[in-house]
C-alpha cells in the first residue's frame, strides 16, 4: 500500500506530466503509481549478485504470478533499491525492487552485498 502523502505527490506528478509532456509520459507515470514502484532516481541503491543456476526472472510485482519483464543471467551484478514482502520462494518471502524501478526479483536468488532497506 502506498503512503497517502506519496500517493498525493504521484497524482500531482501525473497531472503535471500530462500538461507538460503529453499523454505518453502521463501514461508511464500512471503505470508506475499503479505498480507502487519507486521513482527511477531512488535515494538508496545497493549492489547484489544473482546466485541462481538458471536465469533470474524480473517480475512486474513480487509474486511468481506477475508478468515476466526480463531476466538476469547467473552471476550477473545488479542494483536493488529496497525490499518488500511477497510470495514465498523456497522459504524466502522477500523480493527486491530493482534500482531502476523496472521490476522485482526474488531475494532467494540474490546475494546482497550491503543492507537493503524496506520499501516505503
From TrEMBL:
Domain of life of the native organism: Bacteria
Keywords: Signal
Signal peptide (from-to): 1-26
Record protein name field: SH3b domain-containing protein
Species in which this protein is naturally found: Streptomyces humicola
Amino acid at each position: 500500500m502506498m503512503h497517502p502523502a506519496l500517493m498525493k505527490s504521484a497524482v500531482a506528478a501525473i497531472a503535471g506530466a500530462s500538461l507538460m509532456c503529453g499523454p505518453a509520459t502521463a501514461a508511464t507515470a500512471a503505470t508506475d503509481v499503479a505498480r507502487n514502484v519507486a521513482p527511477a532516481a531512488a535515494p538508496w541503491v545497493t549492489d547484489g549478485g544473482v546466485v541462481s543456476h538458471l536465469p533470474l526472472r524480473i517480475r512486474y510485482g513480487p509474486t511468481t504470478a506477475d508478468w515476466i519483464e526480463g531476466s538476469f543471467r547467473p552471476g550477473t551484478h545488479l542494483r536493488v533499491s529496497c525490499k518488500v514482502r511477497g510470495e514465498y520462494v523456497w522459504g524466502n518471502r522477500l523480493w527486491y525492487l530493482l534500482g531502476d524501478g523496472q521490476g522485482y526479483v526474488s531475494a532467494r536468488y540474490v546475494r546482497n552485498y550491503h543492507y537493503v532497506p524496506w520499501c516505503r
